[in-house]
Write a structure and sequence with these properties.
By secondary structure, the chain is mainly alpha-helical. β5 and β6 form a beta hairpin. It folds into three domains: about 280 residues, no CATH class; about 90 residues, no CATH class; about 60 residues, no CATH class. The chain has 20 helices and six strands.
Length: about 450
């Protein structure tokens, strides 16, 4: 959750999982989740009394992407003593959740059956404790996921399930190629779904560690799934944080969005391709997908373009972008003049440019990360028969590490810019501050927090 030319294989899953976590990419999953093809194998349980943060990763080499040393959480629920207490109290904690489960439709018999003998998997705490971070650019990420192998397998999967995808498109008005792309990126078309028992994983996180309030809802939702017979308990396996199925649903997302598309009386997104694809399309439709429209378009910007216009909050009709000289590559026609879109520059002024429609936002409702949504849209187009992006990704681009992002924020703040919290997380305030600084020193005002901006700040420009 491999390389630039092949699909994501299991041998590389651990490293790619760290990438996805660092980018905050996890399908329908929780913010801590690593799902699908990127899921790591179940680890050996670790006793809480003996728990210690994992050792730092070795120094990166030229053949391996840089991965910063894992950072232990300072959260009070993640100390060795707190983990020991939580492990000892696990059975009582689970029992205390019965009223909430009963209130949400779990039967008394079902609760007793599925919680009897339930033990925590303390090995999950190691994954929750770690905060790894890959320093990959959006271009590297998209190129890695939209591989020739994944494109080919997507075409094969759609051909093998043609009736399902036709019915999904007809029922929900969602582009079936986008649905297939989500399947491909989340679980490599079902070949890598994760092996953690979802009940145990969510129960562990509901009663141990720093995310207990969030995961109590997930655990209760998982109990409902097995109690009502949608998915057999033995089949309900997924990522360490509880995401499961062909397109990786968290239990609460399953309860909200899953559908019985094959009509057998069960919403089984694990074993039924029809249910999984229908449920994914339903989620996209609920996220605002508009039938008959694309997710977005690669565009070429004119010389001396005002990069201040590259702002998610500046949506304009296509005809206005056209009037400003924005064009599609190779003379391709622009879409309807009334369709609204905003300009996205995922690599800044030196990389490819895209006009994003409301359907891009629908993909973001599945996972709120631009790089993820761009990879989904591009893979969908490639499966359909489209070509690669015309404009190259910058070859000299380098993603900032979390420490460098925090340094960039501190240096901007020291100059009087409002960056919000200095935490290494580059939110909207930081990007506005970057844009204002770029204007002040004569750099392209694309708001992209690049290494060049940091170098400029360091040099005192």
């Amino acid at each position: 959750m491999s390389n630039r030319t092949t699909g994501l294989g299991r041998r590389s899953a651990g490293g790619i999982a760290a990438l996805m976590m660092g980018l905050g990419l996890a399908g329908c999953a929780s913010p801590d989740d690593v799902t699908g093809t990127l899921a790591t194998p179940a680890s050996r349980p670790v006793a809480a009394a003996n728990y210690a943060p994992p050792a730092a990763s070795p120094r990166p080499s030229a053949s391996r992407p840089a991965l910063s040393a894992p950072q232990a959480s300072s959260h009070p629920e993640m100390t060795p003593a707190a983990l020991t207490r939580a492990e000892a109290n696990f059975s009582r904690c689970i029992a205390s959740l019965e009223p909430a489960a009963r209130a949400r439709g779990v039967s008394a018999a079902g609760f007793r059956r599925y919680t009897a003998g339930l033990k925590p998997d303390m090995g999950i705490m190691e994954k929750l404790q770690m905060q790894p971070e890959f320093t990959r650019t959006a271009g590297d990420y998209v190129t890695m996921l939209v591989s020739e192998t994944r494109i080919r397998r997507g075409r094969e999967a759609m051909a093998q399930n043609a009736a399902v995808f036709e019915a999904v498109s007809r029922t929900y008005g969602v582009d079936p190629y986008v649905v297939a792309a989500i399947w491909g990126i989340e679980t490599n078309y079902g070949s890598a779904r994760g092996s953690y028992p979802v009940l145990q994983a969510t129960a562990t996180l509901a009663c141990v560690g720093r995310r207990q309030p969030y995961f109590r809802d997930e655990f209760v939702a998982a109990l409902r799934i097995v109690d009502r017979g949608d998915i057999p308990e033995s089949h309900l396996r997924g990522s360490w944080a509880g995401a499961f199925g062909l397109t990786q649903f968290m239990p609460t997302a399953f309860q909200r969005d899953a559908v019985d598309f094959d009509g057998d009386g069960h919403r089984n997104v694990v074993d039924s391709v029809a249910d999984a694809m229908g449920s994914t399309a339903n989620k996209l439709k609920r996220g605002g997908w508009q039938a008959g429209h694309s997710w977005g378009y690669e565009v070429v910007l004119p010389a001396r373009f005002n990069y201040v216009l590259a702002d998610k909050n500046l949506r304009k009709p296509m005809r206005e972008w056209w009037a400003m000289g924005v064009r599609r590559p190779d003379g391709r026609s622009m879409p309807s003049g009334d369709e609204m879109a905003y300009l996205l520059l995922p690599a800044g002024a030196q990389g490819p440019a895209f006009l994003m429609t409301d359907n891009f936002k629908a993909i973001l409702s599945y996972n709120p990360a631009d790089a993820y949504a761009l990879a989904i849209g591009h893979l969908a187009d490639r499966i359909r028969g489209g070509g690669p992006f015309v404009q190259p990704w910058p070859e000299d681009a380098r993603a900032l590490s979390r420490l460098e992002r925090a340094e960039l924020q501190r240096r901007l703040a020291s100059r009087g810019y409002d960056v919000g919290p200095v935490d290494g997380a580059l939110g909207s305030k930081t990007r506005v501050a970057v844009r204002e600084y770029q204007v002040s020193v004569g750099l392209p005002a694309d708001g992209h927090p690049s290494d060049k901006v940091l170098d400029s700040l360091r040099s005192g420009s």
